[in-house]
């Protein structure tokens, strides 16, 4: 695990979109996630798991929007975990510290 945004609330689900997840850029920065990076989404409400890529959302908005086919696996208000992974050699992996983000109930960083 390279990065995790733990327990954010889905704010939108847009079925008629190309695909992806839109994430507030403040959350992306805090979690060390970049645009177009592959992520795994785990839905705490229904157990669904999916993989997609990240699109930056408006900074400070709290946006978590599942787009395209992924929108069928969530409802607005669902709680999800967003995880990214990285490949590294064994010695590097032993020393690596992932970026973990625990937002508030409105998907904003706790300062």
Automatic annotation (TrEMBL):
* HAMAP family linked: PanD
Q: How does it assemble?
A: Heterooctamer of four alpha and four beta subunits.
Named in its record, the pathway it takes part in is: Cofactor biosynthesis; (R)-pantothenate biosynthesis; beta-alanine from L-aspartate: step 1/1
Modifications after synthesis and translation: Is synthesized initially as an inactive proenzyme, which is activated by self-cleavage at a specific serine bond to produce a beta-subunit with a hydroxyl group at its C-terminus and an alpha-subunit with a pyruvoyl group at its N-terminus.
Q: Name one GO biological process term.
A: pantothenate biosynthetic process
* Gene Ontology CC annotations of this record: cytosol
By sequence similarity, the record places it as follows:
Belongs to the PanD family.
Its source organism is Sphingobacterium detergens
Stored InterPro entries: Asp_de-COase-like_dom_sf, Asp_decarbox
Reading the lineage from the top rank, the first entry is Bacteria
**Name listed for the protein in its UniProt record:** Aspartate 1-decarboxylase
Q: Catalyzes what?
A: L-aspartate + H(+) = beta-alanine + CO2
Which compartment or compartments is the protein found in?
Answer: Cytoplasm
Q: Where is substrate bound in this sequence?
A: 52, 68-70
Q: What is the lineage of its organism?
A: Bacteria, Pseudomonadati, Bacteroidota, Sphingobacteriia, Sphingobacteriales
Assigned keywords, A-Z: Autocatalytic cleavage, Cytoplasm, Decarboxylase, Lyase, Pantothenate biosynthesis, Pyruvate, Schiff base, Zymogen
Write down the required cofactor(s).
pyruvate
Q: Which gene encodes it?
A: panD
């Amino acid at each position: 695990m390279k990065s995790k945004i733990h327990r954010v609330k889905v704010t939108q689900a847009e079925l008629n979109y190309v695909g992806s997840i839109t994430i507030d850029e403040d959350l992306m920065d805090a979690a060390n996630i970049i645009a177009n990076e592959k992520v795994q989404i785990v839905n705490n409400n229904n157990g669904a798991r999916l993989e997609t890529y990240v699109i930056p959302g408006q900074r400070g908005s709290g946006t978590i929007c599942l787009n395209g086919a992924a929108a069928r696996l969530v409802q607005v208000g669902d709680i999800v975990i967003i995880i990214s992974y990285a490949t590294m050699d064994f010695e590097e992996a032993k020393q690596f510290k992932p970026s973990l983000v625990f937002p508030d109930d409105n998907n904003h960083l706790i300062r």
